Amino acid sequence: MEPFYPMVVSAIAVVVTLIYASYLDIKDRRVPFIHWLPMLAVGICCTGIMLWQTSGNAGLIVGYISLVASFLYADYLDNRGRTDSLYLTRYYRKGSVFYYFALVLALPAISWFLLAPSVNMQLVAWYVMFAGILAYVTWMEYTGKFDEPVTTKRKPGEVNLADAIGRWYFIPVILIYAISSVYLISGGAWTLNEGLFILLPAVFCGVFYIFGRMHLFGGADAWALIFISLCVPTFPFTPLLGIPPLGFLAFSALINALLLNLVAPLGIFIVNLARGNRAPLMYMFFGFPVRGDAIQKEWGFVMEDFEEKNGTVNRKFIGFWDAIRRMYAGEGRVYTKDLRERPKEFTRELTIYRKAGTVWISYAVPFIIPILAGFVSAILFGDFLLSLMTMVVGR
Questions:
Q1: Which helix (H) or strand (E) is 197 found in, with range?
Q2: Alpha-carbon torsion 35, 36, 40, 43, what sign?
Q3: Hey, is 158 helix, strand or coil?
Q4: Rounded to 5 degrees, what are φ and ψ at 383?
């Protein structure tokens, strides 16, 4: 395969950005969203050029830009009151939300209907649903329906409708993008290879966007994977182990990252054994004990619950499903960064940790580092898992 030089440029921009983002994540455990924007600007331009070189299909290019715009608009809506990006004040966001909304509605209409050879009436119905969902969420944002303080107490089992809508509305939006791609492929507007440039990133990015909203992935990790798939949707050149059947670089980068990340738990388990640390087997792979009076100097989430009765400190490890529930809820987890930055809010916890002597915390190597390694290794070598399976099967 001849090199896609626009993809080479975009891949370089991604690598440089991931290196800097890894530095920020190690230093502060936070990557401000604005640092992704230069890479995204380069990636959009390069991918647009690549799509024009390979297909010459203007509708496909507008469809790709539409997908990117929808993710940026979702981030715009979902991060209300943020001050680390271009959206600096509530007033500015209030006054500009409808301009963004109009653009997000116009782009898919141009791609799906104006630049398509014929209009599919079923696709019109899906577009109306797409517009209706975003219109409703935009109205909720403009009228302040999402502004309920997180400290508001609710009865057990009571559902916050605004929170539920704000967390889940993007799932049907992504499904509509996937469905529209299938319609446009089947209708002949796009070839199968062309349509996959929209279908695969839509599904992949949608999954990790939702993972980020559910707190199952760090925000920086989720955006790194999303922007990799949008900026470099295909391999810039043939890697040493060959191109996987789908040719979707972001998926291979994720698989490689997960495989490379397995080294960390194994190393933690060995260190725990060597130091004589004892805990249930699962926790031996994902955490280690630290001094309770020095926990504020560490990085990680506390893996134990503590209770003091009659001067005695009782402790138990947090169960797997309980940990997942707390991650999803975004509460009930103690982060050492919070202990360090807001100690007055955790006076009780800090006192108990000192009395306990040691506290087990999860290891805190930012996943964005394996993502960087997975991305580079996927470009140079290919998909590790697929190659391993091919070797085992013997084909």
A1: helix 192-213
A2: positive
A3: coil
A4: -90, 110
Q: Distance between alpha carbon 394 and the CA centroid of its chain, in Å?
A: 35
Amino acid in the structure at residue 139: W
Predicted model pTM:
0.78
Whose tokens are 């670089």? That residue is 249
Give 85-109 pLDDT, tens digit per residue: 444 444 445 557 888 899 999 999 9
Compute the distance between CA of residue 295 and CA of residue 302 in angstroms, rounded to an integer.
9
Taking only the tens place, the pLDDT of each residue in 195-245 is: 999 999 999 998 888 887 777 677 788 899 999 999 999 999 989 888 888
Contact 235, 1 (CB under 8 A): yes
Contacts 24+ apart (CB under 8 A), 371-374: 371/18, 371/221, 371/224, 371/225, 371/228, 371/253, 371/254, 371/257, 372/15, 372/18, 372/19, 372/22, 373/256, 373/257, 373/260, 374/252, 374/253, 374/254, 374/255, 374/256, 374/257, 374/258, 374/259, 374/260
The C-alpha atoms of residue 316 and residue 306 are separated, in whole angstroms, by 7
